[in-house]
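> call design_seq(struct)
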């Protein structure tokens, strides 16, 4: 007998500890820079921040630059800070890798519920959130105002990289042949780089994730209201409102993630009922005295009544549970494993509106009419309503049921030695969180100093480079997953991309807005907000209402990345938006 899984309460407490470790570590950075009572000001205490690379020699302290935390290396040269940025960036990449690996292990043990819906999305966004937090957490207000641009660059760069470079790359590596009706053929890729003959497809649930992503852009709009309306006051109020909206959207998204497994189970139950009914209607169409539906789409009530009398074996004017089960058992369901008891219960619950444990003739006719309307909706545009029509309905419902069943079974895979796996998962999460908290601040310092030494705006450095550190592990994982060239894996890949953007637009933005509001910083990021808004809306609308993406769509996504950089540069340095 396998060992029992660890208690969920213990795991939840440990996950809370992981998140608290990150928050306390980042907050401890602020205390260290502010100094302790009785020890003088921050400048008199042991200073942990790197000096500005461009500081005149006369302003430097005796030992030149100062080591972060008192022992990490420091430098005042551009090349040295570039090396430090790469080194700390690699460590942040490893922390993101550990967090991702730990999250996946924990998800295997406890499933998607509260842990998967609440904690894991937060842990996935933790490296970005910590980098944004430390970018303006410590130092004077002027230093924070300068460095917080790094946090905005990371926020914009991470979001835009996910929706452009990563999205387009997944289309390329996951492309399959498109059939004549524009549906993809899993694992078949014979048309090379045909812009219209190859592409990817996702399920309908993925388009819902894209819509949620598009809605998550709302806090950006709220904080820009004073700039949009050219108001001279109300900036702090809109910052607070934007923060509240971001937190509410974050909570709503987490609740949606928590209840999504329940929603999936309900969908699976309904798809099973729909497939059973399609099989019963197909069987009735073939074995009764005429078609259930005429060629013009009108239901044939007399044939439906004949079917009722055929099922009503004792001719008492109502169908009992035993009679219904006997009829269902007589139908050959070859494509699914049918539990006749469960199927009977579902059909009885659907037809028996009077709740008297039997189906009367009127209830039976009404129930069949409802399902015939559902068949016409599912198999729209099939032409004449013949036997082929009912067969198409049965095939379609079977495919839908099997797709949901595969997903449900994947979510419920059992693993060996869950206690050890849980310990390993928690260890990886703690290690990843500790590394992210420890090296976020040195990375921000190195980027800021490199920017000062080279006169390259810190926004563009953080926009391009820092997302590579925090998102590379999930990007590589997404590309590998997409390369399996199956609709199911592609749907999961793109859903995770949209989920990552949603967390950026809610959790990471909430951290940024709280930082700006609490420290009294100036909100002056109109151009950055505009490019985030444009990319999220364009890709959100593009992916919310379609599930097929030919190869040419990847070039649309790729083009948005350089256009975003050019737009920020023009607005800030040519039109003076900064």
């Amino acid at each position: 007998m396998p060992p029992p899984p660890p208690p969920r309460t213990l795991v939840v407490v440990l996950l809370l500890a992981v998140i608290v470790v990150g928050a306390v570590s980042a907050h401890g950075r602020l205390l260290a820079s502010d100094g302790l009572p009785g020890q003088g000001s921050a400048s008199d205490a042991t200073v942990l921040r790197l000096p500005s690379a461009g500081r005149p020699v006369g302003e430097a302290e005796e030992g030149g630059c100062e080591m972060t935390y008192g022992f990490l290396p420091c430098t005042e040269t551009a090349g040295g800070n570039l090396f430090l940025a790469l080194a700390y960036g690699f460590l942040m990449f490893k922390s993101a890798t550990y967090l991702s690996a730990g999250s996946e292990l924990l998800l295997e043990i406890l499933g998607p519920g509260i842990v998967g819906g609440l904690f894991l999305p937060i842990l996935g966004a933790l490296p970005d959130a910590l980098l944004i937090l430390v970018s303006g957490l410590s130092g004077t207000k002027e230093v924070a105002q300068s460095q917080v641009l790094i946090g905005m660059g990371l926020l914009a760069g991470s979001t835009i990289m996910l929706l452009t470079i990563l999205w387009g790359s997944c289309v390329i590596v996951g492309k399959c042949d498109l059939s004549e009706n524009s549906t993809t053929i899993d694992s078949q890729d014979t048309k090379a780089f045909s812009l219209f003959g190859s592409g990817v497809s996702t399920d309908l649930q993925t388009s819902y994730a894209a819509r949620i992503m598009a809605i998550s852009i709302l806090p950006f709009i709220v904080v820009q209201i004073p700039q949009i309306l050219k108001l001279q006051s109300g900036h702090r109020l809109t910052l607070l409102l934007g923060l509240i909206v971001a937190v509410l959207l974050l909570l709503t998204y987490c609740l949606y993630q928590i209840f999504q497994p329940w929603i999936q189970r309900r969908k699976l139950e309904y798809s099973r009922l729909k497939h059973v009914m399609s099989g019963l209607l197909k069987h009735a169409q073939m074995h009764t005295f005429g078609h259930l539906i005429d060629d013009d789409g009108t239901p044939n009530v007399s044939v439906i009544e004949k079917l009722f009398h055929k099922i009503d074996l004792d001719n008492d004017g109502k169908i009992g549970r035993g009679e219904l089960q006997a009829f269902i058992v007589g139908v050959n369901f070859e494509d699914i494993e049918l539990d006749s008891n469960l199927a009977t219960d579902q059909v009885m619950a659907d037809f028996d509106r009077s709740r008297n444990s039997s189906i009367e003739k009127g209830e039976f006719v009404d129930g069949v009419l409802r399902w015939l309307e559902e068949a016409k909706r599912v198999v729209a545009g099939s032409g004449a309503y013949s036997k082929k029509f009912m067969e198409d309905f049965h095939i379609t419902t079977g495919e839908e049921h099997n797709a949901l069943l595969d997903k449900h079974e994947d979510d419920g895979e059992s693993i060996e030695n869950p206690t050890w796996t849980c310990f390993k998962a928690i260890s990886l999460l703690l290690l990843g969180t500790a590394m992210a908290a420890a090296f976020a601040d040195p990375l921000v310092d190195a980027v800021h100093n490199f920017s000062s030494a080279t006169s390259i705006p810190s926004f563009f450095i953080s926009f391009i480079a820092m997302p590579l550190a925090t998102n590379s592990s999930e990007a590589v994982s997404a590309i590998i997953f997409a390369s399996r060239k199956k609709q199911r894996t592609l749907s999961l890949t793109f859903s995770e991309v949209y989920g990552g953007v949603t967390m950026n637009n809610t959790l990471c933005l909430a951290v940024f807005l709280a930082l700006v509001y609490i420290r009294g910083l100036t909100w002056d990021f109109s151009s950055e907000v505009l490019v985030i808004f444009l990319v999220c809306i364009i890709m959100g609308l593009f992916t919310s209402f379609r599930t097929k993406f030919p190869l040419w769509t990847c070039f649309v996504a790729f083009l948005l990345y350089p256009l975003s950089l050019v737009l920020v540069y023009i607005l800030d340095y040519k039109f003076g938006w900064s």
